[in-house]
Amino acid sequence: MEVDLSPKLAKKAYGDNGGSYHAWSPSELPMLREGNIGAAKLALEKNGFALPRYSDSSKVAYVLQGNGVAGIMLPESEEKVLAIKKGDAIALPFGAVTWWYNKEDTELVVLFLGDTSKAHRAGEFTDFFLTGSNGIFTGFSTEVVSRACDLDENAVKAFVGNQSSNGIVKLDENFEMPEPKKEHRFGMAFNCEEAPLDVDIKKGGRVVLLNTTVLPMLGEAGLGGDLVRLDGSAMCSPGYSCDSALQMTYIVRGSGHVQVVGVDGRRVLESTLKAGNLFIVPRFFVVSMIASPEGMDWFTVITSPNPTFTQLAGRTSVWKALSPSVLQASFDVDADTEKLFRSKRTSDAIFFPPPN
Description:
Structural class: mainly beta
Radius of gyration: 23 Å
Number of strands: 23
Mean pLDDT: 94
Helix content: 10-25%
């Protein structure tokens, strides 16, 4: 596979007063197009309001920073108004209409990672705005909107023409938006930073899994994921997705180093990583990461709602499952070398602390 897998930063697509929208382009990160996946980021200033829209792609939204309010309307369902905060993951299947609002001083930043296999453009999300200068109603004639909404011509012109902004606006300080309801979070959002740990390795790292057990709506979106926190100088075991899933990994905090190995044992990526980077691991390719002394956190979305991984180190690795004679023959080593290999990394750990 001759595709550039180098980590990339998002670039601003639009926005000014109230916030901005940033996206990763398939022209710079070609694996987006190859894998039919997309990535973008929304940043809202205080009183910033992302206008209602729906998308041609299913996604997972992950709150990177701040607190805010999200409105989510699934097809033929009532509006859910959720209080959202850092660490929240939200599954957004096809057909979901969403809006986002920040009433706090701290900037609200939301990451979107998802599947573009049914999108208009491979590797890119296309949003269809309900209002604004590029809203759906701006394309219809006054007569059509008037008859559809039972409004006179003057009212139609106001509804269609008054909102001259595109995508994001800044509301007045005193404007009252809907208050979130606690019960609306149930089944809609899952906080990865507050959840019980699925993996916890001393001086190694911690993992919280994002699957249909904790967020059933991921099944509708066809996506899963995890939040990984790697301690300083620790290593994440080489492993691969064994169910044909792609991995989209965003570096949330810190820095480190990544290696990816593909077909014929060829190293296809070796790079430093820093906060804000996104990189993609192709199907069945093996990835391993090492954190810098400051540690490194990342959020990954996987194109399977309940992904399965195979490790190449540790007690649960494929090597330890093979019989001794198979290992001897495969590596062309003697029995003593095979025993030495098998005697190492005997725990279930997928994270390894730095050498003493």
